[in-house]
Design goal:
about 5% helix, 8-stranded parallel sheet, Leucine-rich repeat, LRR (right-handed beta-alpha superhelix), LRR_dom_sf, 11-stranded parallel sheet, Leu-rich_rpt, mainly beta, StomDev_PlantInt_Reg, about 290 residues, 2 domains, 3 helices
């Protein structure tokens, strides 16, 4: 069978490809633009030279048993838009690559992981639920069209920088070992719908003025961090969007006054804090969404 013109292939959910050499699947066609092998019982390491199709735009290997380091070649695909390697057993640091904007190469074992080019078209990156460590490489923050970033549930360290993209809708950093002050610019991503910074060592200062401008925000998870709120008590703030809010284990000593501004609260978790005294009457007047 001649598959040289094959453009899209999906074998996800139900296909047992545990005995199929992964290289043969990845290089079926030089015309391949989309490959979905989610939950296909794949295992083993990805060879450094496994990615040959420079037309590949979407690659989904989620939910397999892949291990070893993530090859730099996966980031050397100039057409790549969507990359999902979540829920595997990848280890080590995320590869650092040459950035188009900085043209610098950070300290990294280049003999073991040679640098790739900058995947500037990438808008969706899912790497959660692996065994990754080290800091988040600079090129991730520099992706100009980034919409979804899911790198939670690893052992990543270091601080968060400003994102070049102004199109972020989904940001999951929870369950790592990240620290430092969250840049205010995170709360100025006006298209943001889902923000999970939970279970890190962040210092999170939420400017209520910024929060009211996030008209699309539906999920805000800040638990197990140091969280504080900054607002002008003489101003009337209003949050009209339906919001699920988790602030457990945030060292809170009082009920956050900003809750008075929430018109449609979907759920609220204030457990494992240092709250004391009676529940303020105004909390019962907060609008809960049906």
């Amino acid at each position: 069978m001649n598959l040289s013109n094959l453009r899209e292939l999906s074998l996800s959910h139900g296909s047992d490809l545990s005995t199929v050499p992964l290289v043969s699947l990845m290089n079926l066609s030089s015309s391949l633009t989309s490959l979905n092998l989610e939950n296909c019982q794949l295992h083993g390491e990805l060879p450094q030279n496994i990615f040959q199709s420079h037309k590949l735009q979407s690659l989904d290997l989620r939910g397999n048993h892949l291990s070893g380091p993530i090859p730099c070649s996966s980031l050397n695909l100039e057409s790549l838009i969507y990359l999902d390697l979540a829920s595997n057993n990848f280890i080590g640091q995320l590869p650092e690559v040459f950035s188009n904007s900085t043209k610098k190469f950070s300290s990294y074992d280049s003999s073991k992981y040679p640098p790739g080019s900058f995947p500037s078209n990438l808008n969706s990156l899912y790497l959660s639920g692996n065994l990754l460590n080290g800091t988040i490489p600079s090129w991730i923050f520099e992706l100009p069209y980034l919409v979804s970033l899911d790198i939670g549930l690893n052992s990543l360290t270091g601080e968060i920088r400003n994102f070049h993209s102004t199109s972020l809708q989904y940001l999951f950093l929870g369950g790592n070992e990240l620290h430092g002050v969250i840049p205010r610019s995170i709360f100025q991503q006006v298209k943001l719908q889902y923000l999970d910074l939970s279970s890190n060592n962040f210092t999170v200062i939420v400017e209520l003025e910024d929060l009211t401008k996030l008209k699309e925000l539906e999920i805000l998870y800040l638990s197990s961090n140091n969280v504080s709120w900054n607002f002008n008590s003489s101003k009337n703030y209003t949050l009209n969007n339906r919001l699920d809010l988790v602030l457990s284990s945030c060292n809170l000593i009082e009920f956050p006054p900003f809750l008075k501004s929430v018109q449609r609260l979907g759920s609220l978790d204030l457990s494992s804090n240092q709250l004391h005294g009676s529940v303020p009457k105004w909390l019962w007047e907060v609008g809960f969404a049906e």
